[in-house]
Amino acid sequence: MEYSVNTDRKWQTTVSVALAPEDIKEHYDKAIKKIQKDVTLEGFRKGKVPPQLIKRLYGDQIESEANQFAIEHAWKTIFKESDFYVINEPDITNLNPTDSGGMTFDITFEIHPDFTVEGYEDISVEKVIYEVTEEDVDEAIDLIRQQNAMMYTVDDEAAAGHFIYADLQEVDATGVPVIGQKIENQQIWLTEDDEELTPQLIGVKAGDERKISLMVTIEQSDFIEQPGMPDEIRKFYRVRIKEVKERRLPDLDDEFAKDVGPYETMDELKEQYIKNLRHRAEHDTQHAFENALTEALIDNMDFEIPDSMLNFYLDNVIKNAKKRNKNSAKPFDEQHYRAMYQSHAIRDLKWHLISEQLQKQENFQVTDADIEAKLDHYREHGEDGTKRAEAIRNNHQELERLRESIIFDKLYAFLADKVNVTEMTKPWRELQEPAPEENGAAQVAE
Asked: Cα separation of 58 and 60, whole Å?
């Protein structure tokens, strides 16, 4: 038997096999015995028909069975000698007899990518260090203050910034109520940014009634075409004011600190918030740097993902997406979804393979001291961090996840030491999402 191995860039491997006539003939006896045990012929007991008679009666079948045994023997020999890391089901292709009585065929399959992670010294990565400012701390404390604000009844007329609690009844242009279009106990925030509803309600008091009008968005049907249907129409409402309230913020004093946490003074609260925000900024700095290292290493490694590995990944993405959308009225476009996620899947798989190989190359290990240091890091960030540390310590699965995270900490530390790092500083607030625009208008359902 002779064979050669060829693997392309996508790890599609083809083993081209050539069997000589003697490689097949050595399996003839085995083929004869397989057929012989099931043959029943007059004058002979089952399984006792002489081999010569079997050859004469079942020559073509014997040859076919011998060929199959020869292929199986070649398959096992090749895979034992080569120790392939096969990731899909191998196929036999291009099976052809030779003029000499032998045969040739190919065994095709994909193998797990085999490469070395190297070239770190040639990679340049920018590390953005996010810094917490006094303004960040003030904003964080102000958010807690906003969350602890209290609502108080207002006896005077409603003004901008007040909240109105009211019942809204839709009416036609003549003032006749539209049956079934009543909204009870609606909260309406009167804001200066709202130029439609707020001006119509400024000055009302509890017990007042006022007629207002609103431009209301019309929901278009996904199933029925409605040519000429406007996006918005004007509707009229009779508003009965039930309450007017205002929101008052607590004073930033020691009593406030005691109310919101285990603090005796505002100084203690502020000190803890500085620690917490710096911890978050450090986390965001490290997370962004790790992402930059990941992307740089992926771009530096020139290899492709096997089709079977990519398809398996995307099949699971599609499966999960179908579960999430099973109650949707719109049909699920699998091909669109698959195409949309393909590039993301390729990068995810590349990083998985790179990080897996790098862990093998460098043999990163997690010690008990590593675990304790990580748990201590959690404990440094207040009561919640201490609870988190204890929850991890008492849960085997959580401990395993912690070990995995420490392995990646070591991996990223290794890379950070090898690549060329350029540091720059930015305010931490640049990472924060902008606050959503407030809308004081009542949302009237169609």
From this structure: 6
Residue that has been written with the tokens 């205002």 in this structure: 246
pLDDT of residue 444: 35
C-alpha 336/C-alpha 341 separation (Å) is 9
For the segment 283-303, the average pLDDT, to the nearest whole number, is 94
How far is residue 19 CA from its own chain's centroid?
49
Neighbour count for residue 193 (Cβ, 10 Å): 11
The pLDDT, as a whole number, for residue 227 is: 57
φ and ψ of 104, to 5 deg: -130, 150
pLDDT band at 225 (very low <50, low <70, confident <90, very high): low
For the stretch 360-401, pLDDT in tens is 999 999 999 999 998 988 887 777 888 888 999 899 999 999
Tell me the Ramachandran region of residue 207: left when phi exceeds 0, alpha when psi lies from -120 to 50, beta otherwise: left
CA 193 from centroid of its chain's CA atoms = 37
CATH code that applies to domain 2-110? 3.30.70.1050
Nearest Cα to Cα of residue 170 among 181, 155, 180, 185 = 181
Q: What is the pTM (predicted TM-score) of this model?
A: 0.69
One of 3.40.50.720, 3.30.420.270, 3.10.50.30, 3.40.50.10540 is the CATH number of 150-248, namely 3.10.50.30
Percent of the chain with pLDDT over 90: 69
List Cα–Cα distances, 201 to 164, 242, 374, in angstroms.
Answer: 9, 13, 56
Is residue 143 within 8 Å of residue 157, measured between CB atoms?
no
54 touches 41 (CB < 8 A): no
Give the mean pLDDT of 116-136. Answer: 93
Identify any residues that bridge with 163 across adjacent strands, giving them in sequence order: 189, 245
CATH architecture type of domain 128-132+262-431? Orthogonal Bundle (1.10)
Q: Could you tell me the two tokens for 304? A: 């492709």
Q: For residue 431, what is the DSSP state?
A: G
* 315, containing H or E segment: helix 307-324
Q: What is the pLDDT of residues 31-44, one digit of tens each?
A: 888 888 878 777 77
The domains of the chain are located at 2-110, 128-132+262-431, 150-248
